[in-house]
């Protein structure tokens, strides 16, 4: 009887998911507790439960810096992982990621226009604090929204997904070229401001930004859970998916919109955080040995959040004043990890045809 | 009542500037419960287009397609997925899912938005696994399966979809003889449960030995249909598949490789099985088998005796027999 198999696997996966959730909570606490100032766990817990850690300076550090950053890391990790997974399955391409359709290029173009042209219109660098960060968010959001619009229009017309992928790549290349032109004609300080944005950062979000960031990402994550079942039929190939009653054009559009919401929002608020979204789905498939999206999506949300907290922990170099750009850390520590697991497993059987 | 019926159906492709390219017109066909039908015809004659048209993937040019009594255009994607399931030659894109997970995906038209399986879903999956005898594979990953096992799993997935009609594209492609026979037996037992099976194939065994009826598509000619044996005896099959020039052996349903005759002819006698294989070997080597030949070969299971008017010779294998005739044809060469 298959019910035995089903019950056994249900038990196994419940255990795995609970274990991951516990690990995520631990990573969160460690991430928040450690940094340039170490806050003891007991004080941290009392801050979380009662809003008072016992020291006013710690309260300030926790509520203004550490908590926003840790929450951002959790949401960024899960959002990039899930959108990378969706793109890899939709395009049947192991190299696909959240930015494959040119979303980060579009956002980059928006930001570049804001910084470089803003300089002529009154000076981007003059803006400070909240006004400046909202301008970045708005311009990056507008850029990625524009890309989303064009890609969606193409998606409703095109029959196969791979053509869409190529259009996305072309669009990214064109946007990159425009950014280069803008950089060429602008001044050093502006270029530096753009380059710093392109490094990505988890720590720049204030609570006012989080009030927008949190609900949008949560909506995207709920969407990705709802899309798990149709994504599973795509594991058989598009022809089989259609024969199972899937409206391929509608689902493709929903997947693209979902990915654009997740990756576009992350890029708008935190800059283009590369690598993570491509590598995490592979890492999760390899470690947990499944391609079933009903399992993979929650696994990636939990595992991606925990991993991003760890990367952020590394980036803030505990005990030191300086912080490394998150983009550098994810690739620097993520790449060897992926290579190690690939060499251990010897092939890509876990995800694709042998 | 037929599971699927086409009335005056025209299939083909619409082109933008010019008139549509019609592949087949006025197609009137139907499948009944319990029937296995093979769809045959040369490449490019419209078999795939026909299958795509009746599964609603491409628009028909004119005519009607009915499932039971429901016109195709009245069925939405999900309803159609409950009437028709398919098994393609293409393999699943991901091999890192278990057999059970794959078959559960076959419940897509029925399960809820989270893909949580109800008791009815579990029953259907259980039935599909039992029917295809793949219980021992249930928790294996797809990458652990052989081609034959994978094909049975894909058939189980189609069964779990609980449709009355199953369409298979070349179900025995890449399979060895043993697995091919297993798949054919399996399809026969599924048909006996009252399902209709349509197979698009070039395989002579599947079409003539497994199928109840053949649908033959030809270029610029009406679709022919009938019992395989009738279509063989009246020469329709031969004509449709352009086999005339290749000596389709209508008695045995096999194709003779046309080796030109070298002038030698022999008369064969002996038990039927030995006779069959001996004559195949002789014909392949250009030797004519004829009742009126002077040379006689008497076969039994272990020996072949060649008698010419002048002499006689003993052979213990067909290989030896062929060597004798080769030397007789070129007396100068040595063995």
How would you describe this structure to a colleague?
With 354 residues, chain A is mostly helical. Chain A contains 14 helices and no strands. The two termini of chain A are 30 Å apart. Chain B is globular and about 85 Å long. Chain B is an alpha/beta fold and 335 residues long. The mean pLDDT of chain B is 88.
Give the helix/strand layout:
The complex is a heterodimer of chains A (354) and B (335).
Chain A lengths: L1 H32 L7 H10 L5 H35 L12 H19 L7 H29 L3 H24 L3 H12 L7 H20 L1 H7 L3 H6 L4 H23 L5 H13 L4 H23 L10 H20 L9
Helix pairs in contact in A: 1-3, 1-13, 3-8, 3-11, 3-12, 3-13, 4-5, 4-6, 4-7, 5-6, 5-11, 8-11, 12-13, 12-14, 13-14
Chain B lengths: L3 E10 L7 E11 L4 E5 L6 H8 L7 E6 L2 E2 L5 H5 L2 E4 L11 H7 L13 H13 L15 H14 L4 E5 L7 H16 L3 E5 L3 H7 L2 E4 L7 E3 L1 H6 L2 H5 L7 E2 L4 E2 L9 E5 L2 H13 L3 E2 L5 E5 L4 E4 L4 E4 L2 H12 L6
Parallel strand pairs in B: 3-8, 3-9, 6-7, 7-8, 13-14, 13-15
Antiparallel strand pairs in B: 1-2, 1-4, 4-5, 9-10, 11-12, 15-16, 16-17
Helix pairs in contact in B: 3-5, 4-5
């Amino acid at each position: 009887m298959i019910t035995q198999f089903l019950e056994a696997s249900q038990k196994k996966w419940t255990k795995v998911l609970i274990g991951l959730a516990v690990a995520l909570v631990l990573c969160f606490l460690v991430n928040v507790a450690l940094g340039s100032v170490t806050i003891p766990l007991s004080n941290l817990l009392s801050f979380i439960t009662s809003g008072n850690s016992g020291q006013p300076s710690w309260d300030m550090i926790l509520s203004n810096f550490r908590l926003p950053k840790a929450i951002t890391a959790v949401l960024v990790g899960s959002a990039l992982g899930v959108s990378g997974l969706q793109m890899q399955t939709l395009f049947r391409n192991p190299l696909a990621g959240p930015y494959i359709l040119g979303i980060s290029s579009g956002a980059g173009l928006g930001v570049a226009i804001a910084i470089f042209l803003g300089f002529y219109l009154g000076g981007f660098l003059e803006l400070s604090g909240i006004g400046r960060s909202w301008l970045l968010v708005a311009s990056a959001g507008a850029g990625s929204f524009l890309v989303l619009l064009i890609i969606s229009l193409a998606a409703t017309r095109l029959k196969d997904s791979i053509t869409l992928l190529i259009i996305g790549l072309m669009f990214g290349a064109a946007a990159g070229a425009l950014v280069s032109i803008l950089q060429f004609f602008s001044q050093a300080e502006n270029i530096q401001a753009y380059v710093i944005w392109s490094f990505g950062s988890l720590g720049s979000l204030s609570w006012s930004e989080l009030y927008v960031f949190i609900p949008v990402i949560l909506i995207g994550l709920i969407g990705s859970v709802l899309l798990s079942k149709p994504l599973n039929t795509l594991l058989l190939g598009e022809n089989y998916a259609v024969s199972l009653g899937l409206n391929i054009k509608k689902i493709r559009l929903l997947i693209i919109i979902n990915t654009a919401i997740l990756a576009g929002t992350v890029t708008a608020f935190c800059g283009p955080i590369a690598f993570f979204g491509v590598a995490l789905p592979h890492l999760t498939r390899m470690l947990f040995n499944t391609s079933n999206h009903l399992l993979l999506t929650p696994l990636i949300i939990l595992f991606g959040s925990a991993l991003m907290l760890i990367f952020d922990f590394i980036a803030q170099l505990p005990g030191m004043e300086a912080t490394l750009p998150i983009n550098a850390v994810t690739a620097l520590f993520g790449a060897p990890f992926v290579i190690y697991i690939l060499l251990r497993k010897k092939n890509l059987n876990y995800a694709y045809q042998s | 009542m037929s599971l699927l019926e086409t009335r005056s159906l025209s299939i083909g492709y619409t082109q933008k500037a010019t008139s549509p390219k019609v592949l087949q017109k006025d197609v009137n066909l139907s499948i009944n419960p319990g029937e296995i039908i093979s769809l045959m015809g040369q490449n490019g004659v419209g078999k795939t287009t026909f299958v795509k048209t009746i599964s609603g993937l491409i628009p028909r040019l004119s005519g009607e397609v009915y499932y039971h009594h429901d016109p195709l255009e009245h069925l939405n994607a999900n309803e159609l997925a409950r009437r028709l399931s398919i098994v393609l030659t293409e393999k699943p894109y991901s091999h890192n899912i278990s057999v059970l997970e794959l078959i559960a995906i076959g419940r897509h038209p029925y399960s809820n938005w989270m893909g949580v399986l109800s008791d009815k879903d579990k029953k259907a999956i259980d039935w599909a696994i039992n029917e295809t005898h793949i219980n021992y594979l249930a928790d294996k990953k797809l990458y652990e399966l052989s081609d034959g096992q994978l094909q049975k799993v894909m058939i189980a997935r189609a069964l779990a979809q609980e449709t009355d009609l199953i369409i298979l594209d070349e179900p025995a492609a890449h399979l060895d003889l043993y697995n091919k026979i297993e798949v054919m037996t399996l399809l026969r037992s599924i048909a006996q449960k009252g399902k209709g099976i349509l197979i698009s194939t070039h395989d002579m065994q599947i079409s003539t030995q497994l199928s109840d009826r053949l649908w033959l598509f030809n270029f610029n000619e009406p679709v022919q249909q009938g019992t395989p044996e009738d279509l063989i005896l009246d020469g329709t099959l031969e004509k449709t598949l352009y086999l005339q020039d290749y000596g389709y052996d209508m008695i045995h349903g096999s194709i003779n490789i046309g080796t030109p005759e070298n002038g030698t002819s022999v008369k064969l006698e002996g038990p039927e099985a030995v006779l069959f294989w001996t004559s195949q070997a002789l014909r392949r080597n250009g030797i004519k088998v004829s009742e009126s030949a002077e040379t006689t070969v008497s076969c039994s299971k272990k020996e072949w005796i060649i008698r010419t008017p002048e002499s006689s010779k003993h052979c213990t294998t067909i290989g030896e027999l062929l060597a004798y005739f080769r030397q007789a044809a070129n007396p100068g060469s040595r063995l």
